[in-house]
TrEMBL record:
InterPro entries the record matches: PhnD (IPR005770)
Gene3D superfamilies xref list: Periplasmic binding protein-like II (3.40.190.10)
PROSITE patterns to which the protein is assigned, alphabetical: PROKAR_LIPOPROTEIN (PS51257)
Record key words, sorted: Signal
Protein's recorded name: Phosphonate transport system substrate-binding protein
Record Pfam families: Phosphonate-bd
GO biological process terms held by the UniProt record: transmembrane transport
Natural source organism: Haloplanus vescus
Domain of life: Archaea
């Protein structure tokens, strides 16, 4: 199946990005353009509303496209699940992807190449929050028994895996990727913003999301628990990416000016290696999740 045919078949997919001048011949292309066939497609999980996500990443797409004369376009590809975006880059249907830490850990054995680490608010880590409304009677994680909790996606790190781990440590049955919890119900929101909104609008009793989504100085939303630090998401390249291409794209991302990221969800890109995600591996192993679970979701 051709790459674009595959991508157009993904559920809920949206493409948008920077387009340069078309027409560079194959023989004139350098390493990056030859590897990407002049068109870099960049997969994005459903962190938030697809339109907002693409707009946020557009300066990064522009920066990449302008850095390689042999690349005609860099296009953002959004999907409605975390498993779809990792499937696309593992199978080479997209060249690059921003993966959640959990999906990176689960897919690392498939040969994907971590290039850079996202930074946000001056940090290279974030936390998972579980919160409730001030008008509920929930005062601790124990009180979530019998309640409904909004979460982001089963394979979201801060909106799925880590909050379930926190609840399991509080003694609740949290189920797994194939079974629902015995002690509470989950409403999957498929977005950090949507998870918080479900709580604010009274559709659920509690919600899990990344700390970057937590409202500032709120009198109505109360944090119940937070996770240990989680390394931010990596940007990865598909498994067959040559070393010179990995180096070129990595250096280009590390050089992006801060003003390009003023409206982005991140501040800058930093260096990364596989061991950065060992704390995430520990939680994934504790929860009994493996690569087979990624394939099934």
């Amino acid at each position: 199946m051709r790459r674009r045919t595959y991508l157009s078949s993904l559920s809920g997919l949206t493409l948008a990005g920077a387009a340069g001048c078309l027409g560079t011949s194959t023989t004139d292309r350098g390493p990056v353009g030859s590897w990407a066939e002049a068109e870099i497609e960049f997969g994005l999980p459903p962190f938030e509303n697809a339109e907002d996500l693409l707009e946020s990443y557009r300066p990064t797409f522009d920066w990449l496209e302008s850095g390689f004369e042999d690349v005609d376009s860099v296009t953002g590809v959004t999907t409605t699940s975390y498993s779809a975006v990792v499937e696309s880059v593992v199978n080479g249907h997209t060249e690059l992807a921003n993966l959640s830490p959990v999906t990176y850990v689960l897919a690392a054995s498939d040969g994907i190449n971590p290039l850079v680490l996202n930074w946000s608010h001056g940090r290279d880590f974030y936390r998972s929050y579980i919160a409730t409304r001030a008008d509920t009677e929930i005062e601790s994680l124990d009180d979530i028994a019998g309640k409904t909790v909004a979460m982001v996606d089963p394979l979201s790190t801060s909106g799925g895996m880590f909050p379930r781990y926190l609840l399991s440590q509080a003694g609740l049955d949290v189920g797994d990727l194939d079974t629902e919890p015995a002690d509470f119900d989950i409403e999957w929101a498929f977005g950090h913003d949507a998870s918080l909104r479900a709580l604010q609008e009274g559709h659920v009793d509690a919600a899990a999301y990344g700390d970057f989504q937590h409202p500032d100085n709120s009198d109505t939303i109360v944090k119940l628990a937070e996770s240990d630090p989680i390394p931010f998401d990596p940007i990865v390249a598909r498994p067959d990416t040559p070393e010179d291409v990995r180096t070129a794209i990595t250096e280009r991302l590390l050089e992006i000016p801060s003003e390009r990221l003023e409206d982005h969800r991140i501040d800058k890109f930093g260096r990364v290696d596989d061991s950065t995600y060992d704390p995430v591996r520990d939680v994934v192993e504790e929860m009994g999740v493996d690569i087979g679970d990624l394939d099934e979701n």
